[in-house]
Queue: 4 jobs
Job 1
Amino acid sequence: MPRFDDQTVLVTGGTGGQGSSHVRAFHAEGANVVIGAIDAERGAALADELGTRARFTHLDVTDESSWSAAVLAAESTFGALHVLVNNAGVQNPPAPIEKTDQATWSRILDVNLTGTFLGIKVTAPALRRAAGGAIVNIASTMGLGGTAHYAPYVASKWAVRGLTHTAALELGRDHIRVNTIHPGVIATPFIQEPAAGATAAIADFYSPEPFAIPRLGEPADVTRLLLFLASSDASFITGSEYVIDGGLLLGPALQAETG
Ligand SMILES: NC(=O)c1ccc[n+]([C@@H]2O[C@H](COP(=O)([O-])OP(=O)(O)OC[C@H]3O[C@@H](n4cnc5c(N)ncnc54)[C@H](O)[C@@H]3O)[C@@H](O)[C@H]2O)c1
C-alpha cells in the first residue's frame, strides 16, 4: 500500500542525481511532489513526465523569499505540506584551508547550511498547519570526520547535524520529526568533480574496491532510507543520523597484498 497517499513532499535540488530519484519514488508511493530546483527546464520536464500530483517550483535554497514561494506553491496546489527533504547541496573545488578563498567558503555554507536552516524555518509553520510531518536533511559521511581539501563542505555538513538535533528538539511537540542521512559516495554528477589533490573524479578518489560492500552507492539506496524516515514507519525516530555508505567509514575491508 502506498505510504504517502494524500501527503505532499517538497524535495530541494529535485532535479539532481539523488533529488530526482527521491521525487520519483515519493510520487510512485502516492505523494504529491513539489520539485524545488534552480534548473527550470529540467524541473518542468520532470513534473511533465510525472503528470498529475507533480509540480515544479523555482527554489534557490539560499533565498528566503524563494522558500516562501515554494511553500505557497505546495499549499495552494495540494492543500498542505507534510514532508521536506533538504537535499540541495554543492561541493567546494578541492583546496587546502590556506588556499580556500572566503567567497568559496561562503558559497558552500550558504547552500548547504543556510539553505537547510531556511528550509526548516520557512516550512515549519506549514508542517504545523498540516498537523505534523517530517524533515530529512541530507548531510554526508564527510560531516562525521575530516577530509583534507574539503573544509567548507565538511564544515557545512557537520553543522547540518547540530541544526537537525536542535530542530528535532524545537519541533517534536508539534509532531514534526527531523532526521539526517549521511550518504557515502553515491553515483551522481556530484562525484564527477575532481578529487582532492588530483584531477581524478571523486569516484576514483574513493574507489569502492576496499569497502565492505565494494560498489558505489546508487541514488535509489539513499531514496529507500529517506522514504522510511519520512514515513509513519519512523514515527518514533527524531534527531537521528543514518549513515548509508557501504561500509566506507569502517575503513578498508581488504588488506593490500604483501610479499
Ligand atoms: N553524490 C555523493 O557522493 C554525495 C555524498 C554525500 C552527500 N551528498 C549530498 O547529497 C545531496 C544531493 O547531491 P547529488 O549527489 O544528487 O548531487 P547533484 O549535483 O546531482 O545534485 C545537487 C542538486 O543541488 C542543486 N542546487 C545547488 N545549489 C542550489 C541552490 N542554491 N538552490 C537549490 N538547489 C541547488 C543542484 O542544482 C542539483 O540539482 C547533496 O546535499 C550532497 O551534498 C552527495
Job 2
Amino acid sequence: MRLPKKVYICGIPYKIKYLKEMVDTDADREEWLLGQTRHDPAEIRVFKSRTKEQVWQTIWHEVFHAMFYQLKLWRHIKGGRAEELLADGLSLLMQGLRWEYKK
Ligand SMILES: [Zn+2]
C-alpha cells in the first residue's frame, strides 16, 4: 500500500503519520479516532488498520479539515456538524472524481 508521508495544504506542509491503534490516532490518547489533524506542528494522524480505500477516505477527510483551518473557513463552520459533513462529502467527491477529456 503506497501512502503519502507529507501533503502541502494551502502551502503548509502537513506530515502524515499512520497509526495501528485507534487510540494512538489521537495525539492525547483520549479518544479512539480514525483520523486527527493538528496544526502546530502541522500533522495528520491516520488510523491505518483498514482497507486502502478507507484509509484514503480518512486522509481526504483530514485534508479538508486542514484546508478549512488554513483558509479560516472553520470560523464559519466549526461547532456544528457542518464541518464533519463537508469533510465527509468532499472526501467522497475526491475519491470518486474522474475527468474525461475530448480525444
Ligand atoms: Zn472530522
Job 3
Amino acid sequence: MDTFHSLSRKASFISLLLSLHLLCAIHSAAFNVETVTFNKGFSHLFGEGNTIRSADDKTVQLHLNQYTGSGFKSSDLYNYGFFSAKIKLPAEYTAGIVVAFYMTNGDVFQKTHDELDFEFLGNIRGKRWRFQTNMYGNGSTSRGREERYYLWFDPSKEFHRYSILWTTNIILFYIDDVPIREIVRNDAMGADFPSKPMGLYATIWDASDWATSGGKYKVNYKYAPFVAQFTDLALHGCPADPLQEVVNSDCAAREDGQLASDDYASITPKQRNAMKRFRGKYMYYSYCYDTIRYPVPPSECVVDLAIRQRFKDTGRLKFDEKHHRHFKKRGEVMNTRNNRNQENV
Ligand SMILES: *[C@@H]1O[C@H](CO)[C@@H](O)[C@H](O)[C@H]1NC(C)=O
C-alpha cells in the first residue's frame, strides 16, 4: 500500500511537471476552422447598442456598461455540429461579470430545453478568471452537471478559441485544441443528453448577485465599459427547424463527412493526455466527484482515481496545498445562474 502511494505520488509529481510543458506544446497548434461573418450567421439578442462589429464583420465586441450588457445568437438552430469562437475577455477589474458562450433551445422548449455552456466568471483585480462548463438535456436543470476550472493562461491578453463539438454520441468542450471535457452518451442518460436543435449564443452581463465570491464583489462601473471580443466564429452544422424534426439530408450527409474528417472530431492520444492533465491540475469542482449531491455518480461520469484524490468526499477541493490556501480563505462560492443550490457551500 505504502509503495503504491509513494509511487503514485511520484507519478503525479512527474505528470505535474509534464502538464505545463504539454499544454503549452499542444495549444500552440490551432484548428483549421472555416469561419462565418456576423451577418451571415448571427443576429442581435439584446443590448444592440452595445454590440460593435468590425468593418470586415468577423469580429464582434460585446460591451457591458451601467445601462445594459449585450448578446448575440445564431440566426438558425442546429442539430449537432461544431460551434466555436475566438474570445478575448475584459481585463482589469471584472468582478461580478459573466461572459457566456453557449448553446441552448430554451426559447423554443421552455420546459424541456437542452443546453451546453462555457461561462467565464470575472474576478477582482489580480485574481484569475475562472470558468465553468455545464450540460442540460430535456429540461434536466435539477441535475446540474457543472464543472469549474482555472485557465492556464490569462484570457484577457490574447484571443483563444473555445469550441463545442456536439454529435449524436459525444460532446467535447475544447480550449484551443485541448479537449477539456468529454461527455459520452449512454443509454442510462436518456434524454439528459441534448438532442433537440440548439442555437449558439454569446453574452456579457452583470451577475453581481453571485458571480464573484457569492455576490461579495459587485460589478464596479468605474471600469466600464467591459468588453468581450468574439472573432472567427464557426457554425458547422445543419440548420434545423425545431418544430419539424426534419434535417436537410443533403446537408446532414455533408456535415457528417465533414465532421469525420475535421481535426477536432477525434482526439489524438496526445490530446487525451493533455485533457487528463488539464483536469488533474485546473479543475476545482466536478459534479462527478460531489458525493453530497450525487452519492452515486451519474452514469456518464468516468471517475479518475488521481482526480478523486484531489477532492474531499464532498467533491470540494482539498486545500492542503500551500498555494491553494487563499482560495479557501476567500470562501469562494461557485454559484451559477442555473445552480443556486450551491449558494451555501
Ligand atoms: C422530455 O421531458 C418531457 C417532460 O418531462 C417528457 O414528457 C419527455 O418524454 C422527455 N423526452 C424524452 C425523450 O425522454
Job 4
Amino acid sequence: MQLENGKILHSDNVFKAHSVKFIDAISDGIELLDQPEKLRKVLNELGAMHEQKRIPVTGFPVFGNAFFATIKEILGNQCSIELVNFFSLF
Ligand code: HEM
C-alpha cells in the first residue's frame, strides 16, 4: 500500500516498529486476561498515550478491521463464527 507521502506502508520503519509494539501489547493483554484491574490500568495508560500523540479515534476501527482481516486470512476455514461475532463487537 502506498501512502500519501509516496512511502510504501509495509516498508516504513515507523509502521514496522509500531507493528512489533502492537503485537507485544496484544500478547501482554492476553497474559493479563485473568487480572482485569491490571489489564484496565495498562489499557488506560496505552489509550492516554495515543490521545497525547493525537491519534484520531477514527484510526482505531481501520486498524482493527485490518487486524481482523489478517487473522481471518491466516486462519482460513478455521476462523470460527464465535471469533467473527467477537470482532463484530468493536
Ligand atoms: C488497538 C490498537 C493499538 C495498539 C494495541 C497500539 C499499541 C501501541 C504501543 C504498545 C505503543 C508503544 C507505547 C510505548 O512506547 O509506551 C504504541 C505507540 C504508538 N502508536 Fe499505537 N497502538 C494501536 C493503534 C494505533 C493507531 C490506530 C495508530 C495511528 C494510526 C497508532 C499510532 C501510534 C504512535 C504514533 C505511537 C508512538 C510511536 C511509536 O512508539 O511507534 N497506534 N502503540
